[in-house]
Amino acid sequence: MGSAPTASAGPAGTASAAAGQGVQVVWDPVFNRYDFGLCHPMSPVRLDLTARLCVSLGLFDDPQVSVVTSRPAPDELLETVHEAEYIAAVRRASEDPVCAEERYGLGTDDDPAFRGMHEAGARIVGASTDLALAVWRGRCLHGVNFCGGMHHAMPGYASGFCVYNDAAVAIRALLDEGARRVAYVDTDVHHGDGPQAVFWDDPRVLTVSVHESGRTLFPGTGYPDEVGGRGAEGTAVNVALPAGVADAGWLRAVHAVVPPLLRSFEPDVLITQHGCDTHSLDPLGHLVVSVDAQRQVARTLHELAHEVAGGRWVALGGGGYAIVDVVPRAWAHLVAEVAHRPLEPATPVPAEWRRHVETLTGRSAPARMTDGEPAHWDGWESGFDPADAVDRAILATRNAVFPFLGLDPLFD
């Protein structure tokens, strides 16, 4: 494997955090170049607005926070997950979008080719890998790359707005560096199919995805019986929720599955994907989750990172297409949580940011960092209701995977 590109202070950089104690946050306007065009749902505006909100809230000014950028990952690093022929195809399409080949998932409605696509996608991989290795080597405690989380990209083709799979490459780098076990938890509304596929046969990697069922949503996978390959049974975990699930059901599902699995698996590092397209306002999904519940899950995963992984935690972005009302607030909460500066839900959204949004988009922005929804749920210990669709989904997952890890599906 080639050496990973080294993170450096970005244009918004602050003083370096104390080794092993601070956090690194990826941001640089260059990440806006991952741009499929004006009519595509994955607008880079969502990234720029997130960073601007973090600045307005003072999150990048904390002395424990280092804002970093990254060079594009070299081909040798990409090839630890992706096929050389596919990388070559991305390069060709990147230089001349007319040359995009649909057999590689390029030039499609989901993944239209654009000039500079290879460099833009490889830079995201470089950033997430840098963060993972910085955490592993003790240079920082946590890292967050809200530009990352491209979880649909497969070894040989692009899929679902994702060209290269930064999460999978970062996990592979950790394993190559000597990590014995890595856990990946994905809370995007869409199934985290890419990391699952890459590590299907690897018992050193636990992939957990809590998502809307493939019966109603792309990519049509992620069912409870997808449990991992031979010798790795129980390390692929899928909670497939019915459309329409709101905060209480979503939180119950996450807490009924993720904590016991992580405690049993005991990972050396925790990688999490925080796609905020579970929100009720997202135009692509069908769950009815609030920013408040998303904030609660970030906090839970933070606590679990300290409990089971020595605090070694890398948080990634992902999907999210309500680019004014949801994405900036959800990921500003994530950055605040990673930085050990959690924001109170009722925190006002800074007026300067709201003015910028109105000037840029002609739309009014939310006034507070909350949707006004109390983040509460009943724990699994409250009992199983066979008439409840969420409980049936949870139990299907627990029945499928818990016994492989020595856990009781009903009581652990």
Polypeptide structure, described:
- With 412 residues, the chain is an alpha/beta fold.
- The chain contains eleven helices and nine strands.
- Strands 1-3-2-4-9-8-5-6-7 form a nine-stranded mixed β-sheet, sandwiched between helices.
- The radius of gyration is 20 Å and the shape is globular.
- Mean pLDDT is 94; it is low at 1-19.
- This is Acetoin utilization protein AcuC.
- Keywords: Acetoin catabolism.
CATH class term: Alpha Beta
Compute the number of helices: 11
Total domains:
1
N to C succession of SSEs: EEHEHHHEHEHEEHEHEHHH
- The low-pLDDT segments are 1-19
CATH H level: which superfamily?
Histone deacetylase domain
Rg to the nearest angstrom? 20 Å
Mean pLDDT: 94
- How many strands? 9
Strand order within the widest sheet? 1-3-2-4-9-8-5-6-7
InterPro entries: AcuC (IPR003085), HDACs (IPR000286), His_deacetylse_dom (IPR023801), His_deacetylse_dom_sf (IPR037138), Ureohydrolase_dom_sf (IPR023696)
Domain Histone deacetylase: 40-337
Organism: Kineococcus xinjiangensis
GO molecular function: histone deacetylase activity
Could you give the topology of this structure?
Layout: E1 8-9, E2 23-26, H1 45-56, E3 65-69, H2 75-78, H3 84-95, H4 117-136, E4 142-145, H5 166-176, E5 182-186, H6 193-198, E6 205-212, E7 236-241, H7 247-265, E8 269-273, H8 291-308, E9 313-316, H9 327-338, H10 351-361, H11 389-401
Parallel strand pairs: 2-3, 2-4, 4-9, 5-6, 5-8, 6-7, 8-9
Antiparallel strand pairs: 1-3
Helix pairs in contact: 1-9, 4-5, 7-8, 7-11, 8-9
